[in-house]
Amino acid sequence: MWTHFEPVHAVTYFHPRSRAAYEAVGLRGYWRGYFAGRAAPLGPVEAAPVIAAFFNFAPTMVSRALPSVWKLASPEESLRARLTGAVQALAELTYAQPEDHVAEAADLLEEAAGALDHAGRVLGAVNAALPRAEWPLARLWQAATTLREHRGDGHVAALVAAGLDPVETLAWRCRVDLSRELLQTRRGWTDEEWAAATGRLVERGWLTGDGQPTERARVAFRAVEDATDEAAARPWRVLGPDRAHRLRELLAPIAVACRTVLPAANPIGLPAPTD
Questions:
Q1: How distant, in Å, are the alpha carbons of 79, 153, 216, 231, 247 from that of 48?
Q2: What is the phi/psi pair of residue 207, to 5°?
Q3: Is 207 helix (H, G, I), strand (E, B) or coil?
Q4: Is 59 left (phi over 0), alpha (psi -120 to 50) or beta?
Q5: Domain coordinates in residue numbering, the chain
């Protein structure tokens, strides 16, 4: 299900209409829009809670954006820009989809998001608390956003429980299935910080001396992924297999269309939607 609702959310990062909506309220430059839009449900926060909640960004990178972005656009203005850009992007991407299918998908995805337990999940909770939108595409995007942030909160908890810090997590993934060239600069870590994290992974037996993932580490990280899945499973149990399958059918063409605006290699690690 993640491969079906994550692309719906991700248009806010990659579609030109989303970027234009942020620029229209004064958030010029990609990272101003990113940090203001994603952090806006928290209110006019300083950098510290965002460093903690977003998890994998270097503190210096977050501190360059926050709290200074609130001088350019308030959280309320950032939220309006975020939703406006996302809806415009989805309208462009889903024009060929029947309106009743989009509305049905929005209804089911909202029901799934409504079944979430937000205890201990800050980003999921603040997105769930936003006012309900009126139009189906806006409701679809907001439900997808709540689900993905809730899932992300659970993933961070699993990583913390496994004893992995942010840069160690990225350094590990870049030895397995993602690109260091893609992730290191986009998350703001220095070469020295990256090398130190790699050294810690070697010390704990997650990487060999020549930087190759160990089988022990693969098993341990699989446990992290399984814990993430289990913590995010409640909505689909509430919907039940028939309606969850129906939602997946409805989301599949929307997800495929949204996926076209994401780079093939993207920092989210998002694959193509699967059957």
A1: 20, 16, 33, 25, 37
A2: -130, 145
A3: strand
A4: alpha
A5: 2-160+226-259
Beta carbons within 8 Å of 82's beta carbon, 6+ residues apart: 12, 18, 21, 22, 37, 40
One-letter amino acid of 193: E
Q: What is the pLDDT of residue 168?
A: 98
In 3-state terms the chain splits into helix, strand, coil percentages (rounded to 5) of 70, 0, 30
Radius of gyration of the chain (CA): 19
- From residue 75, give the alpha-carbon distance in Å to each of 57, 82, 137, 140: 20, 10, 22, 21
Across the strands, what pairs with 207? Answer: 213
pLDDT of residue 274: 56
Determine phi and psi for 213, rounding to 5 degrees. -65, 140
| Inter-CA distances, 159 with 69, 165, 168, 224, 232, Å | 29, 7, 10, 6, 15
d(CA 213, CA 206): 6
Query: Closest Cα to residue 261, out of 5, 43, 6, 7?
Result: 7
Strand-pairing partners, residue 213, are: 207
Q: Which residues of the chain have pLDDT under 50?
A: 275
* Prediction pTM value: 0.95
In the three-class reduction of DSSP (H, G, I as helix; E, B as strand; rest coil), residue 53 is classed as helix
Look at the alpha carbons of 239, 155, 267, 19 in this order and tell me if their dihedral is positive or negative: positive
What local confidence, expressed as pLDDT, does residue 264 receive? Answer: 79
Residue 269's pLDDT is 84
Q: For residue 182, what are its two tokens? A: 């893609």
Burial of 232 (0-12, 13-18, 19+ CB in 10 A): buried
